[in-house]
Amino acid sequence: MGRFLDLTLSGLTSGAVYAAVALALVLIWRSTRIVNFAQGGMLMVTTSLAGTVLGHGGSYWLALAVAVAGGLVLGAVVERVLVRPVEKRSPLDAVVVTFGLLVLLQGLAGMLFGGTPRSYPPAFSIAGFRVAGHQLLFSPNDVWVILVVLGIMAALALVFRHTSLGLKMRAAAFAPEVARLLGVRVGRMLTVGWALAAVVGAVAGVLIAPSTFVSPTAFDATLVFGFTAAVIGGLDSPPGAVIGGLFLGLVLGYVSGYFGSDIVTLGALVVLIVVLMVRPNGLFGHGVRRRV
């Protein structure tokens, strides 16, 4: 029973990070109907910037602020410079651009920050809580990770449902022609969507960095699992991204704990196939035709 509890708590922590990456992917999909395969590279760059701040004596919170600011700028620049020229072309063009951007960011990171994996300190203690004489595999830092992801989810829900900015972003994504007639600057809203998504990704990178080593390709697996979580939850649904991430984290935690870490990727594939066989649009997705 103790092992099951440890795996559950550990899975929730990993799932929270997958949920944050899934949220970033969903935000971009909702605004431009593009799956951003460069998201892993973007959050790697912002996390590397944060690591540089720490390496020069900055605090964890300053590094987090730098990562967020870097994500905001990077997301806006990518949308304006790389995505906007191809967003009205064939969907395949946008996919190629994001893959190319991923390779470019990984190459630049290798030149600027080096290819040697670097450790990243956690915000709080990673020593597990002790309950009834048993030390759980769940620490204050894990609580921080889960609370941050839930906070991001709540903040995004507030923005999209209860602010004029959120209404304009939704209108620009789902009915751009009508939005333009109503005076909405659709291009600006799309830029804001990419910037917000990059900020969420930057936070996710800082959250997961203490459990891995930061390097140009360190977050590739995180992107794969985040994308899987987004598809499971439904690419149109931010709540689905969170639930899909937590669900995937739990499943992979059990698979790793009971069957070995070597088949974790296979476990994610099986979960994805089963969910799509039952719900082709994801658990919370809508059966509407989308660009792929």
UniProtKB/TrEMBL annotation:
Keyword Transferase: no
InterPro entries: ABC_transp_permease (IPR001851), BCAA_transport_permease (IPR052157)
Keyword Transmembrane: yes
Pfam families: BPD_transp_2
Residues annotated as transmembrane: 12-29, 36-54, 60-82, 94-114, 143-160, 190-211, 217-235, 242-260, 266-284
Record's bilayer topology term: Multi-pass membrane protein
Source superkingdom: Bacteria
Alphabetical UniProt keywords: Amino-acid transport, Cell membrane, Membrane, Transmembrane, Transmembrane helix, Transport
Compartments, record wording: Cell membrane
Coiled-coil features, chain-numbered ranges: none
Family: Belongs to the binding-protein-dependent transport system permease family. LivHM subfamily.
Protein name per UniProt: Branched-chain amino acid ABC transporter permease
Species per Swiss-Prot/TrEMBL record: Amycolatopsis cynarae
